[in-house]
Amino acid sequence: MTPPITDMRLLGQLFRYPEGDYAKEVGDFIFASNSAMINCTIDCLALQPHQKVLEIGFGNGKHLPYLFKKESSLQYIGVETSSAMITEATEYNNVLVGLQKVHFLEVAADELPNFDYSFDVCFSVNTLYFLENPLYYYKKIHALLNSQGKVAIGFIDKSTGEKAPFAQEGFRFYTAEEVAEILKAAGFEHITKLPFEETLVSAKGKNIQRKYWVVIGDK
């Protein structure tokens, strides 16, 4: 499955901010190509009952059933810049929304709202590339976590991401060491770098090896 877009610059813009006529198709494509990576990041969270979870950039939210299958008593808040993705995620997760287990919030790029409580866990997959100031951003995440809080970041390795034709503008890729240094500077401790690799199939049927990381830090 691939979105019906041949303009790589436009495709890159839509990956960053899915809106307009292609929003649903791009959201579905992002989920299909990244679901294993998202699930892997969730697996690394070691979720516990009744934890409060914050996700940055949830896309169309089709991974939330997997999250709640891991632990059904979670309280989840997701923040997203795309109103189209909030609409998609709300429709797909209408039962969880109705039970008030899930709340979706629209935010401006690089912004996080203030909350009346702290979170146990924050995770984010494939959003790091778009942050203007990742150190500042993860300092804010650090402040939103409780004293035993944890952050987990899933991202494509720099050597893989920089080869993507759609990512030549508006993306910044990182090595695991660079991300670990950002988290350390933001105040996180006991940082763990977990390497993974998967095989994707291109639109032309070619197998593509993709290396990615989940980097975890404790408050």
Automatic annotation (TrEMBL):
- What residue stretches are annotated with the Methyltransferase type domain? 54-153
InterPro entries reported in the protein's UniProt record: Methyltransf_11, SAM-dependent_MTases_sf
- Annotated keywords: Methyltransferase, Transferase
Q: Quote the protein name from its UniProt record.
A: Biotin biosynthesis protein BioC
Q: Which GO terms describe its molecular function?
A: S-adenosylmethionine-dependent methyltransferase activity
A GO biological process this protein is involved in? methylation
- Keyword Ligase appears in the UniProt entry: no
Q: Which domain of life is it from?
A: Bacteria
PANTHER family referenced in this protein's UniProt entry, alphabetically: TRANS-ACONITATE 2-METHYLTRANSFERASE (PTHR43861:SF1), TRANS-ACONITATE 2-METHYLTRANSFERASE-RELATED (PTHR43861)
Is the Transferase keyword given for this protein?
yes
Ranges that cross the membrane:
none
